[in-house]
Amino acid sequence: MTEDAPTGDAAITLLIVDDHPVVRDGLRGMFESAPGFTVLAEASNGVEAVSLATGLDPDVILMDLRMPGGGGVDAIRELTRTGARAKVLVLTTYDTDSDTLPAIEAGATGYLLKDAPREELFTAVRAAAQGRTVLSPAVASRLVSAVRAPRSPGNEPLSAREREVLALVARGTSNREIARELFISEATVKTHLTHLYAKLGVKDRAAAVAVAYDRGILG
């Protein structure tokens, strides 16, 4: 998934993916009544979501997980594989380990539960559009436990440069922007990310940020 984010005052474009029409109608009404958002389309399953995202190129996809005809995790994985620009924000009622970790590992930028307050959802979509990781507290706690327990990462400390890269990742900075800010190549940024992932015992940016906050490396 590419890491370019919308800039300026342009409205954030959305694709809403949920198998329940009432939920889709509610989300569409909520976002269309608020300034700064444009709902491009709705999809009822993951397969339809991938097809629409390819044609419409939304900034953010609000993705449910368990849907007949094509689940959210498979859709996220396919969007990541094809390099879709859209940031995927999971919005679901499920917060079990079997749901959260696969979605984040597949490439989701964030994960919220459907009981999130209206303003929290708006803030999360804005953050996701900028490439920032968004995790509800309950999901963050589960994610940290899930990524730490099976991998048993060592205690090797991060280097000063790896800490710099991690701090920029936590701010939603793309690899290209990190390279420009630190005066290194994108290939070197990816190498640093690979090393710090191994040290933290994680596989992606979202999990790295969650574990880093849990360990006190960030904040």
TrEMBL record:
GO biological process: phosphorelay signal transduction system; regulation of DNA-templated transcription
4-aspartylphosphate PTM sites in chain numbering: D64
GO-annotated molecular function: DNA binding
PROSITE patterns, per database record: HTH_LUXR_1 (PS00622), HTH_LUXR_2 (PS50043), RESPONSE_REGULATORY (PS50110)
Domain HTH luxR-type: 151-216
Domain Response regulatory: 13-129
InterPro entries: CheY-like_superfamily, NreC/VraR/RcsB-like_REC, Sig_transdc_resp-reg_C-effctor, Sig_transdc_resp-reg_receiver, Tscrpt_reg_LuxR_C, WalR-like
Pfam families for this protein: GerE (PF00196), Response_reg (PF00072)
Keywords: DNA-binding, Phosphoprotein, Transcription, Transcription regulation
Protein name: Response regulator receiver protein
Organism: Streptomyces azureus
